[in-house]
Each structure stands twice: as structure tokens, then as C-alpha cells.
Amino acid sequence: MATVASTTTAGTRHKVVFGNCRDMHELARESIDLVITSPPYYNAPFDYPGMYRDYDEYLGLLSRVADELYRVVRDGRIVCFVIDDMLVDGEKLPIVADATKIMRETGFRYRDRIMWVKPKGYSRISRRSGVVIQHPYPMYFYPDNIQESILIFQKGRFDYKKVRELDQTILDASRIDSHAINQNEWNLTVWQITNVLPTNNPLEKGIAAFPEELASRLVQLFSFYGETVLDPFLGSGTTSKVAAQLGRNSVGYELNFSLKERIFSKISSAGRLELKIERRLDSVAHAGESDDEVPPIQKRARQSLR
Ligand SMILES: C[S@@+](CC[C@H](N)C(=O)[O-])C[C@H]1O[C@@H](n2cnc3c(N)ncnc32)[C@H](O)[C@@H]1O
Q: How far apart are CA 52 and CA 37, in angstroms?
């Protein structure tokens, strides 16, 4: 068990592997205490159009990643997916139901579901509700989506005796501020958190980043100080940054090597810490390799994802 460093961030260790998270062989069995991640939303029109050949290929990836997560997560610990159903070509795909089924079939228990609700009018996706305003008649109703699901899975059951065996310094550093829980209603199944707006921060531009507040709640609720948090779909590096700020170590996998500088800046902004970056051959290289209209991340990912 880790000892408490003088400041929270100092002394935490972080590793980023550029490669496909369907294979996380760098991680030993039962080496991860918590997973927080937001898998790509199938062929999300803004972020990943045409990335997967079809929905089955996408579910195949989730299934492979679920197997890897089951291998690397310690007994009793938690995996959080920030995910939601996705509208593609006018059809809503039941990603939440399918991801839950896959995780349960892999062996995880379905522990909880929190609805993350964004402020009204902050939608990144098109305002579909305008249709019924233009045509105020039956059958023109399409609601704007201002929510995402935080699916919480657990590998077996947590042995609460372990908490009593922890060093008092670790317990003190892991203590959750009950004022924050009450004030911001963490105790409910609905969390009102402002989403990251596309224009807010260049480090998150073009990435469907989740807010630091969301990751922060999950890190505090499901990991102890000094433990290790994994994000297999690291994106801009939010999970690792927040883990560092809260005195946790992290590992992240990211397919897109062009995010290296942004991930580096984001994690480093947490303070003094140790950061290792590795690149595997199955990562997707990037700008400069494009020879047609298809962005390289999507074109190359098609091969890399299978
Ligand atoms: C929704 S974004 C994650 C955003 C992240 N939560 C943040 O706050 O920045 C999903 C990320 O997964 C990456 N990705 C997609 N498929 C992947 C794979 N098979 N292995 C690793 N990363 C992948 C994408 O390049 C993208 O950056």
C-alpha cells in the first residue's frame, strides 16, 4: 500500500500507452483499482463518423475491452463507463443496454447507473427539438439529448475488512468531504454537471472530453489514495489529470498518437509527477498521412480496431 506524499500530486506515477486498448498486455492481472472511461460512441456523427464498419464490429471491440478489464481489475473493484445511446442515421442504437449486457456476460456485476444531466441549451449535438417548433403537429417530436449514463460495474464484491486494515494516513487522505456530497447531491442517481464545451479549452478540442468534476467524483468515491486508475480510452487525458490531483496513479490507453502533446500538457498541468509515454505499432499516426478526404484517425482505425 502506498504511503502519503507531502502534497497530493507529487510522487504520483502515470503511464500513457498509445495503442489499441483491445490489448492491454502491459498491465498485469489484477493490477488496477478503478477504471473510468468513455468509449467512443460508435460512429458518433461529430467525433467518429465511419470509424466502425458496422455496429457489430463496435460491440466486438467493447467485448474485447471488457475481457481485458476483467483480467486487469482487482477483485471487488469498479469499472465506470460514461456512455449513452447514439442516434446514427435516424436510428437510436441501444449502446447502454448492449454495453451492460457485454459487461455482465464478461462476469462483472451491474452495480448502478447514474444519469449525468447537462445544463439545458449546452447540447453539443444538433437541436432536434426545433422540428416540432417548426411543425407543431403530432409525429414531429425529437427531443434534444442533455444526458449521458454513468454505468457502474463491479468485479465480484468488495471486502470491506480491507478498509479497516488500511494505514490511517491513507484513510485520512481518502476521506470524502461530506459537505461536497450533500451540497452537490452526489448521493442521488442524477448528477447535474456542466459538460465541457467545444470552445472552452484547446486541449479538449475535437475530443468528447468529460468534465473533471465527473471524474473527480468517481475517483473519490471508488479509489483510495495511492491506488491506480485506468482509462482505456484516454482522449485528452482527463482521468489521469484528475487521478494525479487526488493523489492516485494512472494508466491510459489512446489509439490516436496525435493527441500526445495535448495529453502531455493536460496531465502535466496537475503538478509535479512522473509521466511515461509509450507508443505501440498499433497506434494510429496522424496529420500529414492523409491522402484523401477521410481523416487518418478513422481510415487507419478501421484496420487497427478489428
Ligand atoms: C470519448 S473519447 C474519450 C474522452 C476522454 N474521456 C476525455 O475526457 O478526454 C474516446 C477516445 O478513445 C480513443 N479510442 C477509440 N478507440 C480506441 C481504441 N480501440 N483503443 C484506444 N483508444 C481508442 C479515441 O481516439 C478518443 O480519443
A: 19
Q: pLDDT tens across 252-265, in order?
A: 999 999 999 999 99
Q: Which residues of 22-56 are buried (b: 16+ CB within 10 A; e: fewer)?
A: bebeebeeeebbbbbbbbbbbbbeebbeebbeebe
Is 267 close to ligand 1, i.e. is its CB under 6 Å away?
Answer: no
**CB distance 208 to ligand 1 below 6 Å:** yes
* pLDDT of residue 289 exceeding 50: no
pLDDT confidence band for 212 (50 / 70 / 90): very high
Residue extents of the structural domains in the chain: 13-111+154-171+197-304
State how far the Cα of 217 lies from the Cα of 189, in Å rounded to an integer. 13
How far apart are alpha carbons 73 and 79 in whole angstroms?
8
d(CA 86, CA 5) in angstroms, rounded, equals 42
Inform me whether the pLDDT recorded for 203 exceeds 90.
no
Residue 198: pLDDT band (50, 70, 90) is low
Residues in the chain: 306
E strands, the chain, where? 13-18, 32-37, 73-83, 86-88, 91-93, 109-117, 147-154, 190-192, 228-231, 249-254, 274-279
The closest residue, in CA terms, to atom 27 on ligand 1 is 235
CATH code 2.40.30.170 for 13-111+154-171+197-304 = no
